Amino acid sequence: MKIAVCVKQVPDAEARLRIRGDGAWIEEEGVTFVLNETDTYAVEEALQIAERTGGEVIAFCLGPERAREAVRKVLALGAARAVFLSDPALLGGDALATGRALAAAIRAEGVDLVLTGSASTDLGFAATGSVIAGELGWPHAWLVVGVELAEDRKSVRVTREMESGMNESSRIALPAVLQVQGGINQPRYASLKGIMAAKRKEIRDVAAGDLGIDPSRLGRAGSRLETVSVALPVSGREVEWIEGDAAAVAAALVTKLEQEAKVLR
Amino acid sequence: MSGQIWAVVQQKDGRLQRAGRETVAAAQALARELGTTAVAVVLGDGVAGAGAELAGMALAGVRVVEHPRLGAYTPGGYLAALAPLIRAGAPAYVLFAHTYQTVDFLPRLAQELDAGFLPEALGFQKVDGELRWTRPVLGGKLHAQVRTLGAGTVLVSLQSGAFPADAVQAGTAPVEQVAAALDGVDLQREVLGIESAGEGTVDLTKAEVIVGVGRGIGGQEKLGPVEELTRLLGAELAASRPVVDSGWLPRERQVGSSGQTVAPKLYLALGISGAIQHLVGMKGSGMVIAVNKDASAPIFKIATYGVVGDLHEVVPALNQALQQRAAG
């Protein structure tokens, strides 16, 4: 099977964030960017399905030039080639504009299945995959924790996570888009051989003009959502900090546990 | 355009849930802010009870969409039921609870209607006569103020707890049955069944003390001191999503939106950054003590006591202090 996997590059979860001068986003300088967490699971799932079915995985990524590193990582993990959409005219869009562009690029490749992560850890719209499905006229499923391909490869049995520890299983016709939740598999690490091989793999750059879509429907111009500013959350209750070396902190905590929480016997 | 505010109210087995009442509370508040009226929509199979509950709320109307094919949620069924209704009514905003079900279909509904799409809102305010919405970004470390551009309906999903359910204003609302043309519609998904995700043998909800570990633990092999602390406190061990996804602790110990919701007397959050998905599962705890290396971690926003430090240093010291206390 020919499988597309869509990935995004996001700030590392441990990154210390500073707000940019204009207040509209974070200062990217000095921030480590990584492959979005659930996307790593989508990549692994795509590779496993391709290995079982004798197919290939094509990576798709929409993002600024720095995201080329994330594309290379997916190639090092085992994707055959990549399509990279870094045209500034495609950036800064909401989930609908971004999904529209990715869907057009995917349509040009003609794949049997599209996998994405369930949500990005930066903007968290959790929508790119389902928008791609809508553009292509395919079914989709969000928060997928299990994928079982039917023998005839015309459908897939999908397990979806629900609230309160329940799972839903359903059958979905292929081609389809599956938005993969973390924990579905154990993502592999890139091998040295994989990293070397990735250097020879094709990364095809696709520009806004190649997509055949009205430019006013793409990127920032095509977005109906605009971030005005970002700020630290306002706290409902003020945290009381406990400071000192580990022993002093421990002693203070024991007092809190004993006298306030009253949980020590 | 009617300019109304609609609340599409999620129900379960024909009854309203807290999430549904929160959506109504938000629609009433937004309608007041914008000087318009609010309407509730409920869909499903056998939802007359939910419609009757909504009829007792201060709303301009209640639309009940009943169809056997809406009994089990499917994206195709929900899209086919909601899209024509919203298109015809042309409300300014349609509000939904930001549940897993909503996240599954809302982007496609926005796409089909060519509507604005604003997921996971925490609130709204008027700035210079313009409506601005707040939503979490970067794992809740920051809140973004966003505005919508262009004309037409905007679909908004509201984070759980953003608009308290008890703020719903009572009243009387006329109920209208709305037909849905769903025969022959592609439901896009054949639901085979719903079952428990895991072994489910651990009930964290009854624990008085919970020690929760997050990504900051750094690996399964580093859990020893935390397990020791759990024993010393007579606590239950819990985990955030990344810890479970990494296979360091079993899923049955996960706290958060896809795990268990807990409210112990004491929640000790170790190396947990505090993504909203985790916070919704433990914010009802009596006392929260958080230990994290990053002082800007969102967990500190709900913590009673905060320690900025390395849990691998703090936990062994705490264990020692507890042992000394027990011996003394």
Description of the molecule:
The complex is a heterodimer of chains A (265) and B (328). Chain A has six helices and 13 strands. Chain A starts with a strand and ends in a 5-residue tail after the last helix. In chain A, strands 9-8-7-10-6-1-4-5-11 form a nine-stranded mixed sheet, with helices on both faces. Chain A is an alpha/beta fold and 265 residues long. In chain A, helix 2 (68-77) crosses helix 5 and helix 3 crosses helix 4. Helices cover 28% and strands 27% of the residues of chain A. The mean pLDDT of chain A is 95. The radius of gyration of chain A is 22 Å and the shape is globular. By secondary structure, chain B is of the alpha/beta class. Chain B has helices at 18-34, 48-55, 75-89, 100-113, 224-233, 241-245, 276-279, 311-327, and strands spanning 5-9, 11-12, 15-16, 38-44, 61-66, 93-97, 116-121, 123-127, 130-137, 142-148, 154-158, 175-178, 190-196, 209-213, 236-239, 266-270, 287-292, 305-308. In chain B, the strands form four sheets. In chain B, strands 7-11-6-1-4-5-12 form a seven-stranded parallel sheet, with helices on both faces. A five-stranded parallel sheet of chain B has the order 15-14-16-17-18. In chain B, strand 2 (11-12) and strand 3 form a beta hairpin. The radius of gyration of chain B is 23 Å and the shape is elongated. The N and C termini of chain B lie far apart (74 Å). The chains are: A alpha/beta (265), B alpha/beta (328). At the A-B interface, helix 3, helix 4, strand 7, strand 8 and strand 9 of A face helix 4, strand 7, strand 9, strand 10 and strand 13 of B.
The biggest beta sheet of chain A, please? Answer: 9 strands, mixed
Average pLDDT, all residues of chain A: 95
Q: Calculate Rg of chain A over CA atoms.
A: 22 Å
> Into which percent range does the helicity of residues of chain A fall?
25-40%
Secondary-structure class of chain B: alpha/beta
Strand content of chain B is 25-35%
Reading the helices and strands of chain B in chain order gives EEEHEHEHEHEEEEEEEEHEHEHEEH
- Write down the overall mean pLDDT of chain B: 93
> How many individual helices of chain A?
6
Strand tally of chain B is 18
Query: Which structural class matches the secondary elements of chain A?
Result: alpha/beta
- Placed side by side, the strands forming the largest sheet of chain A appear as 9-8-7-10-6-1-4-5-11
Please give the alpha-carbon distance between the first and last residues of chain A: 61 Å
Roughly how much helix do the residues of chain B carry, as a percent range? 25-40%
Low-pLDDT sequence parts of chain A: none
Most extensive contact: A-B, 84 and 95 residues
